[in-house]
Amino acid sequence: MLLSDRVAIVTGGARGIGRGIALKFADEGCSVAIVDVLAKEANDTVAEVSQKGGKGIAIKCDVSQSRQVQDMVDKVISTFGNVDILVNNAGILPAHKMPVTDVTEELWDKVMAVNLKGGFLCCKAVTPYMKEKKYGKIINVSSLGAKFPPAPTIYYHAAKAGVLGMTYDLACELAAYNICVNAILPGFTRTPLQDIVVESIADKEAYFLDFGKKNVPMQRVGTPEDIAGVAVFLASELSAFVTGETIIVAGGMPLKPAQL
User: Fold this and answer.
1) 209-245 pLDDT tens trace
2) 168 catalytic, yes or no?
3) Which of 252, 190, 253, 193 has the alpha carbon at shortest distance from 223?
């Protein structure tokens, strides 16, 4: 298995993309710490990991709080003895569309704290252990919207663009320690985070099918499993000489399908 005997922290691992990554990691022999503010859902994901024969723990943690992040990493170390992989996936999207004039300072700060600062705090907490072993894999989950915003949501897209800057900087700083830092940019992926997009739509299945056919060259929207496959590549030795890279996982977006 590609991740045999490895230990991973997956933030935002209770559901959506994070859950998909955690379960795929478990399939590949990885022990997984599911880190989330949603305690019940995190425990449910750990139960699924266990059903696959894997090892997992659920840790309730607000990644925007440094003390909680350090306590979380300490618990992972005390439980598994080390940490090899960090997936910074935790994120929030309070609204799908919002003009800049409507964005409050409080909303900006809240989204930045989780979507950007949270990743920074987790990287800061795990890198001493990775540097000591001269091994590590850090995977930051950004967004296609960081480069190609589909709608005015400045606080979200700016935070996700910041994730890219953080990825480039850390990749350069940590390369000498054999720590690879890369980013995944998911396109439109069907997860609970997209609930705000479809909350007023009666036939959600029809909406997603129609969106995929009209906007995605591969004719469908993404799934957490689509993102998880790329995460396994970046977490494994298949990508041993890959760092500072960003991979768009969006079925061909932002290319447009031909209108024949």
Assistant:
1) 999 999 999 999 999 999 999 999 999 999 999 999 9
2) no
3) 190
Positive or negative torsion for Cα 117, 154, 163, 5: positive
Please give the domain boundaries of the chain with CATH numbers for all domains.
7-191+224-249 (3.40.50.720)
CA dihedral 19, 25, 28, 30 (to 10 degrees): -120
Angle at which helix 66-80 crosses helix 118-133, to 10 degrees, equals: 40
Instruction: Report which secondary-structure segment, H or E, holds 39.
Output: helix 39-51
Kindly name the residue from 155, 168, 177, 207 that is annotated as catalytic.
Answer: 155
Query: pLDDT for 92-109, tens place per residue?
Result: 999 888 999 999 999 999
Rounded distance between C-alpha atoms, residue 185 and residue 257, angstroms = 20
Place of tokens 């609930």: 195
Per-residue model confidence as pLDDT tens digits over 9-19: 999 999 999 99
